Amino acid sequence: MKLSESGTVTRPTVSAIVVCYNEEDNIGRCLESLVWCDEIVVVDSFSTDRTVEICGRYTDRIIQREWAGYRDQKAFAHSQATKDWVLLVDSDELVTPKLRDEIKQALVAHGEEFAGFSLPRLVFYLRRWWWRGGWYPDHDVRLFRRDRATWGGSDPHEKILVDGKVRRLRNPLHHFSYRDIEDHVQRINRFTSISSRELANEQKRWRLSDALLRPAVRFFRSYVLQRGFLEGFAGFYVAVTAAVYVFLKYAKLWELELKGKDHGDRKRS
Question: Quick one: average pLDDT of 146-165?
Answer without folding.
Answer: 88
